[in-house]
Write a structure and sequence with these properties.
Order of helices and strands of chain A: HHHHHHHHHHH
Helix content of chain B: 25-40%
Shape of chain B: globular
CATH superfamily of the largest domain in chain B: P-loop containing nucleotide triphosphate hydrolases
CATH architecture of the largest domain in chain B: 3-Layer(aba) Sandwich
InterPro entries (chain B): AAA+_ATPase, ABC_transporter-like_ATP-bd, ABC_transporter_ATP-binding, P-loop_NTPase
Number of strands of chain B: 13
Structural class of chain B: alpha/beta
Strand order of the largest sheet of chain B: 5-6-7-3-8-9
Protein name (chain B): ATP-binding cassette domain-containing protein
Shape of chain A: globular
Number of domains of chain A: 1
Oligomer: heterodimer
Number of strands of chain A: 0
Pfam families (chain B): ABC_tran (PF00005)
Largest sheet of chain A: none
Distance between the termini of chain A: 30 Å
Subcellular location (chain B): Cell membrane
Keywords (chain B): Antibiotic resistance, ATP-binding, Nucleotide-binding, Transport
Radius of gyration of chain A: 19 Å
Distance between the termini of chain B: 22 Å
């Protein structure tokens, strides 16, 4: 455990030194927040003040929470592990007396913790000041929201890790990353709430872990759903964490096996 | 000592062999790679088996320091990958500190220290010091143990000035010293160094070697080293294993390796006055006389003749104005080995 703690805290400190990058990220997130909010507001106003359960205030909350989660979830994917696999650096990771996935998860948690504070909070505050936010009345929503957020970050980590681990078999994983992030951004409910999807697409989305990565934590944190309604969704998140953890673990085992057998 | 090949360690053991389990035991180790080579004029690729390591057997006692040398593609890296458990042997067997490397990779990682000269085990974006905090936790060192060991490493490898700097900002020499410290932090019984001095300047190389010698003298570690620099082997190892095309071409103590080859060291003397061929002691011989008798190139074997003895013999005949001494490069010696065993 001290190993993972030391990695997570080092990773947190590392990101906290990138002040310019953080400021630039906050700026971009905020600008895109305004663009997305104005599009949703226009849609809701045209629909007569409410669209599939979203009022203006709820849409604003949805947008700003989404912008806040973008960085800690790393919705645009990472490439570190796939590059290490391709360059053979993964051998160094495997020669460490610690769990490979554990090391990267600890690193991710440290990074996400910083990104949540440094990149997540500022756009939320700006949004609250400019467009206003609809915040939950039940304090339990915040507690469940925190769990939901942790589960979402874990899921995004596992899915992204699987895309990266494909590098054991593919010479180039960039295309896969692009496809993955496109699908993820849509089906997770980041671009528009999944309730706005046509039924068939909503059905598809709900059969994937993607809504658990963004839609669920946003709905829980914003109080759009009550804590009682959130509980089963948290259960779904937990189920997906289990499934993806097993899948990522198997994928790593197979990848390492093929490296051991075929040579890196 | 006229049969160079496959001198077993027992024959040259400096002390009576102890009943210790070997630190490293490779027997009949083989490794094939399957390569898919394009066939000209066809879209199909032909499956081709390349044998990178072909029947290597080695037994290394605890505390031995072995230089594992050979040309590029001789099978050195493949052997190290198998030793550290990231590559499965195609045939034969190996035990490292009594363990099966692939099956027990994680446990083994606690007991060995590895430096890959071409790869980094430090956390690139973090201050160097943080890497040691993480590694200390990974190896389950107490803060006390870690700090004590780190103090020794910082001192011996002169890391103090840049401990707080992110690894990506370090110079190659600084980073290599940092890598070595990372590999030695948990005081491993076996240290595997894969080209630890590659790309370093003379001063950095020497500093690194000095510390590796000291640390080994203090802790009696087993050392397994691959390098292209004969000086690494000479300063750090007492046994040399030469590999060529995946097989062991020579295995024996370093000094007899030299002696066996006649190891031509070359002394170049510039004389104050031109002179014809000098009379030289022992097996020393004049290889060439240049610049109208001013410059003499003298070949001799380091094992039987010391430089001062040779110099005083020359000094008795002529006045020496300048001199230089060249050591045979590892590539030259290895080439000679290959030449003798008809492998070149």
């Amino acid at each position: 455990m001290p190993t993972y703690w030391s990695i997570a805290s080092a990773s947190f400190r590392q990101y906290s030194t990138y002040r310019m990058a953080t400021a630039a990220g906050v700026f971009t997130n905020t600008i895109f927040g305004f663009i997305r909010a104005s599009i949703l507001f226009a849609a809701i106003t045209t629909a007569g003040g409410e669209l599939s359960g979203y009022t203006i205030a709820q849409a604003a909350t949805y947008v700003w929470l989404g912008q806040a989660l973008l960085a800690p979830i790393e919705a645009f994917g990472t490439r570190e592990v796939s590059q290490r696999v391709h360059q053979g650096e993964v051998a160094v990771d495997l020669l460490r007396p610690a769990s490979f996935l554990g090391l990267y998860y600890a690193q991710k948690l440290g990074r996400s913790a910083f990104l949540l504070l440094g990149r997540g909070i500022p756009p939320l505050v700006i949004g609250a000041l400019v467009t206003g936010l609809a915040l939950p009345e039940d304090p339990l929503s915040y507690l469940l929201g925190a769990f939901s957020l942790l589960a979402a970050i874990t899921l995004a980590f596992l899915a992204d890790m699987m895309v990266n681990l494909a590098a054991f078999w593919l010479i180039e994983t960039r295309g896969l990353t692009v496809v993955y992030t496109a699908v993820m951004n849509l089906l997770s409910g980041f671009l528009i709430p999944i309730l706005w999807f046509p039924d068939w697409l909503l059905g598809i989305a709900r059969a994937t872990p993607f809504p658990s990565m963004i839609q669920t934590p946003i709905d829980t944190l914003s109080g759009r759903i009550t804590p009682l309604e959130a509980l089963p969704l948290l259960g779904v998140q937990a189920g997906w964490v289990l499934v993806l953890a097993v899948a990522a673990h198997l994928m790593l085992r197979l990848g390492v096996r093929s490296m051991e057998v075929q040579g890196g | 000592m006229n049969t160079p090949q496959q001198i077993t360690p027992d024959q040259h053991a400096p002390e009576p062999s102890e009943p210790l389990e070997p630190a490293l035991e490779l027997s009949g180790l083989r490794r094939d790679y399957v390569v898919r080579a394009p066939v000209p004029g066809s879209r199909r690729r032909r499956r081709q088996v390349v044998r990178a390591v072909d029947d290597i057997s080695l037994s290394i006692r605890p505390g031995e320091a072995v230089g594992f040398v050979g040309a590029n593609g001789a099978g050195k890296s493949t052997t190290i990958k198998m030793m550290t458990g990231i590559l499965t042997p195609t045939g034969g067997s190996l035990r490292v500190l009594g363990r099966e490397p692939v099956a027990e990779r994680k446990q083994l990682a606690r007991e060995i220290g590895v430096v890959f000269g071409q790869r980094s085990q430090l956390w690139w974006d973090l201050p160097l010091r943080d890497s040691y905090t993480i590694l200390g936790a990974m190896h389950r060192l107490t803060d006390r143990q870690r700090d004590a060991r780190l103090e020794r490493l910082v001192d011996g490898l002169d890391l103090g000035a840049f401990l707080g700097r992110p690894v990506r900002q370090l110079s190659l020499g600084q980073r290599m010293r940092g890598e070595v410290a990372a590999a030695l932090l948990h005081s491993p019984q076996l240290v595997v160094l894969d080209e630890p001095t590659i790309g370093l300047d003379m001063v950095s190389k020497e500093g690194l070697r000095r510390f590796l010698r000291e640390d080994r003298a203090e802790r009696g570690t087993t050392l397994f080293l691959t390098t292209h620099d004969m000086n690494d082997v000479e300063r750090l190892c007492d046994r040399i294993v030469v590999v060529n095309s995946g097989t062991v071409a020579y295995d024996g103590p370093l000094d007899s390796f030299r002696a066996h080859l006649g190891a031509p060291r070359e002394l170049v003397v510039d004389l104050a006055e031109p002179a014809a061929a000098l009379s030289l002691p022992g097996s020393a011989e004049t290889a060439a006389v240049e610049a109208d008798g001013i410059r003499h190139r003298i070949r001799f074997s380091g094992a039987e003749l010391t430089v001062p003895a040779l110099l005083s013999a020359i000094g008795a005949q002529v006045e020496v104005r300048d001199l230089s001494l060249t050591e045979p490069a590892i590539e030259d010696l290895v080439r000679e080995i290959y030449g003798r065993s008809g492998l070149a």
